[in-house]
Design a protein that fits this description.
Elements: H1 2-22, H2 28-76, E1 96-102, E2 107-113, E3 125-126, E4 137-142, E5 163-168, E6 171-181, E7 196-206, E8 209-220, H3 251-274, H4 277-300
Parallel strand pairs: 2-3, 4-7
Antiparallel strand pairs: 1-2, 1-5, 3-4, 5-6, 6-8, 7-8
Helix pairs in contact: 2-3, 2-4, 3-4
Length: 307
């Protein structure tokens, strides 16, 4: 049986070559159509890779860097306690401002300043029109549901009285969950004067298929500390930092990467006919995948920041 199979292979290859030789060459329009179909395939594949695999690795690395930086600042007493640094300069988006722990769901994340899609690539973000955790008032923290590590993927599992522990430059604070709510559910009563509340928000529904916003409310167990007022008001918060906000400010970068990808795909189709399939795969597969991932990364900025 093995000998027959081995003898049959050369005949099959010869017949395939003969059939290929009889086929008419592709016209320029057909070659462009092939490049377009290849582009759709590459974009679909790299977007899936970015959302399901690469983004998780990126977020994990970013969290480790943020943790190392925040731990060092805590040790030196230079961790931020308000919207500006020690010199009065507004915090750069992505600056670590707190460390969040929820033991019941195994969540440990560094909270970063800002809530734009790019900031939430690296972890949960503190909404800039709210006070810091531990301070008087309602501190708001947004986190992704699925992509880029999905740090808030399980907050819907929280039950009343679940512990939320937050460490900031002003100390350690314990919150107790008072409820989980979806769109249309009653809003809890405001905190008493001098009290503090923490609001966690993410996308409701299945992963990558949001159905509104899920919110977790938790009250501070001890007295809140004082702190400087936010520099940004609710009305002045940029659209990309709102709940379910998207960032279209870097569309130029997306267009640039798409142009690079188009050139690579056209060159790959040309090489397919001039060099052969094997040579084309070896030369063009790595750069096409790398550029495709760059396109997917820029496209992710256009998606809701809680996705």
């Amino acid at each position: 049986m093995t000998a027959v199979t081995a003898d049959a292979r050369p005949g099959w290859r010869a017949r395939r070559s003969a059939v290929a030789a009889q086929l008419p060459p592709l016209s320029g329009r057909q070659q462009m159509a092939r490049a377009a179909l290849l582009g759709v395939f590459v974009l679909s594949l790299t977007l899936l890779l970015e959302m399901l695999l690469a983004s998780n690795l990126q977020q994990r690395a970013a969290q480790q860097r943020a943790y190392d930086r925040f731990r060092s600042e805590l040790a030196l007493g230079t961790a931020p306690t308000g919207p500006t640094d020690a010199g009065g300069v507004p915090l750069v988006p992505g600056t670590p401002v707190a460390y969040l722990e929820i033991p019941s769901i195994g969540l440990r994340q560094v909270i970063l300043e800002g809530t734009s899609p790019a900031t939430l690539f690296s972890g949960p973000g503190h909404r800039r029109d709210s006070p810091f955790p531990g301070q008087a008032g309602a501190a708001v923290v947004l986190g992704r549901r699925a992509a880029f590590g999905g740090p808030f993927a399980r907050i819907q599992e929280l039950r009343p009285d679940a512990l939320i522990h937050v460490t900031t430059g002003q100390g350690e604070f314990d919150y107790r969950v008072i409820g989980v709510r979806k769109e249309g559910d009653p809003v809890p009563r405001p905190t008493a004067a001098g009290g503090g509340r923490l609001l966690l928000a993410t996308a409701a529904g299945r992963q990558f298929m949001p159905e509104g916003v899920l919110r977790v409310d938790a009250d501070l167990e001890t007295d809140a500390v004082g702190g400087p007022a936010p520099l940004v008001s609710a009305s002045g918060l940029p659209a990309e930092e709102e709940i379910m906000g998207a960032d279209a400010r870097t569309l130029w970068a997306l267009a640039l990467w798409l142009q690079v990808l188009t050139v690579l795909l056209v060159a790959a189709v040309w090489a397919w006919h001039r060099w052969g399939r094997a040579e084309s795969w070896v030369v063009f597969l790595p750069p096409v995948l790398l550029v495709g991932l760059a396109v997917a990364g820029e496209a992710a900025r256009l998606m809701p920041n809680l996705l």
